[in-house]
Amino acid sequence: MLYLLGSEKTLTTSFADVVAKSMQTTSIPLKDDALEPELQNMNNTTPILIEKGFSAGAQQECLLKTIREKNVPVIMTNCDPGDLEGYTAVCPKGKYVAVKNKSNGRRQEILVIDNKEISIQCEIKQTNGIVKKTGESTGSKVNEEQVTTRLIQFLKNEQKETKSEPGNYWEHCTTIRFEQWVDNQPTHSSLPGWLNDRLKNGFVKAFCTIDVTLYATKQPRQKWIKYQLTDAVGMSAKMTSDDRWAKGWFNHSANIYIYPGSGSDPNDSQLPGGWTRPYIAPLTPNSKTNYTSTTGWSFGVKGGIDSKGPSAEVTASYSQRDQVQQTIEDFRVRNRSDASMTGWDFYYTAMDGNSWEKHFTPHDAPQPIADLAKSTLTLNSEAIYRGPPDENECIPWSFQFIPKWGCLRGNFFMGWLYTLWITLELSATIDMAMVVNPEP
Predict the structure, then answer these.
(1) What is the per-residue pLDDT for 11?
(2) Computed over its alpha carbons, how large is the radius of gyration of the chain?
(3) Residue 105: which of 79, 80, 77, 70 has the closest Cα?
């Protein structure tokens, strides 16, 4: 069963019909005056599709309580961050947003899909020093049926009824995955026709899942946001051209930015009043293949937790044993962070700067590509922001992931490096009222 919450005009939509059909069920439109009798029938296998702008009026608090206590899945369309306030701690902007609740809503998984054409940028470098940036092309869109299939797949991952846990108001965990479809066969009008034909069966993919955890601690008395990028963030490439004169596609580099605000330029970000960004990992430029991907800071309770909350102090502490080491052969990581923006470059060393020119033999035939550049590269990292203990506002934050793929070609006289890249962006607000400081 699919519950559809909306205004008089939007109680029946084609999208709702597609979702219900995919679930092999029917949709039940509900206005606020018909909502209360159905609340007792809702559970974690009955998703709610909420139309933009819907409010349950006097029943809103009862609706939110039911969603949290019964772990009811939620789907929203055309979301702005304000539309999700009260439903989620991390309130993203997106064309389609699906939310799975666990542990009385204290743990949430969010899927964000922006079904729009993706701008593909291109740059061409030549071994004679000429660099040319070209116009952009666009990637393909997908239809609502494909989007619905992905949403239902996400919601069906867990159909078992989960046991409710005591309310844990000092911690809130959100795993948020955002997806924009990238053409698996990237092409660009600036590439020679014969090269486009040779690369058309190539495969590239970008994927991104961020763990965002909010904490309110007593020692020290602060509020915190912890961003963690694990093996679920990265890119992959499968080469289809690997002969003497052409090699592509391969993983060239990737940029990651986490920053406060909703602007498109990470370098223009400013921290909200009273906030700092004390811990990040990787911390410094690293010329080795090993790097530290976590800060070593952890948050927990000394003495346990019961149905009323922490039975002892909630603390933030550092341990070098909690740091995690990563190995990425033939790739390096460069720290680009400033006081507010957290940023890293992960790059294939053979392609960094002008190093790519050395990748050609005297007869301008490109040398072999490293194995990791031809498979899946994950970008593990972590950032922790610290705020005032009484912070209860919804704070805007942004995330950018810019994966770049490369292709080399040459002849007897010259070599070329073609680079294609896209920008995956996520804007959200983070509701700091979702975590509460223990009593002093």
Answers:
(1) 44
(2) 24
(3) 70
Q: Which burial class, exposed, middle or buried, applies to 205 when counting CB atoms under 10 A from its CB (0-12, 13-18, 19+)?
A: middle
Judge whether 406 and 355 are in contact, CB under 8 Å: no
| Residue 28 domain flag | no
- Averaged over successive runs of 10 residues, the pLDDT of the chain (440 residues) comes to 68 69 76 75 85 78 87 88 88 90 88 77 87 68 73 72 54 82 60 74 79 87 89 81 86 94 92 92 59 58 44 52 62 88 90 87 82 86 91 94 90 88 90 80
Domain membership of residue 216 (yes or no) is yes
Q: Could you give the CA distance from residue 282 to residue 328 in angstroms, rounded to a whole number?
A: 13
For residue 34, being part of any structural domain is answered with: no
Of 251, 252, 271, nearest in space to 261 by CA: 271
Beta strands in 72-157 (DSSP E): 74-79, 90-92, 94-102, 107-113, 119-126, 131-133, 137-138
Residue 166 · residue 305 · CB < 8 Å: yes
Give the range of the structural domain holding residue 420, as residue numbers without chain letter. 73-434
Angstrom distance (rounded) from CA 344 to CA 323: 18
The answer to whether the beta carbons of residues 346 and 258 sit under 8 Å apart is no
Q: Output the domain CATH number for residue 319.
A: 2.70.240
Within-domain flag for 57:
no
Distance, in Å, from the CA atom of 51 to the CA atom of 354, rounded to the nearest integer, reads 51
Interhelix angle for 14-22 vs 144-155, to 10°? 50
Indicate left, alpha or beta for 397 from its phi (over 0: left) and psi (-120 to 50: alpha): beta
Q: What is the pLDDT of residue 273?
A: 94
Q: CA–CA separation, 174 vs 108, rounded Å?
A: 5
pLDDT for residue 251: 92
Q: How far apart are alpha carbons 395 and 66 in whole angstroms?
A: 26
| pLDDT at 271 (0 to 100) | 95
Q: Please state, as a whole number, how many other Cβ atoms lie within 10 Å of the Cβ of residue 397.
A: 23
3-state secondary structure of 163: coil
Number of domains, the chain: 1
186's tokens: 């990237």
Residue 204 CB neighbours (<10 A): 23
Cβ atoms of 291 and 328 closer than 8 Å:
yes
Strands (E), 336-393: 342-348, 376-378, 381-387
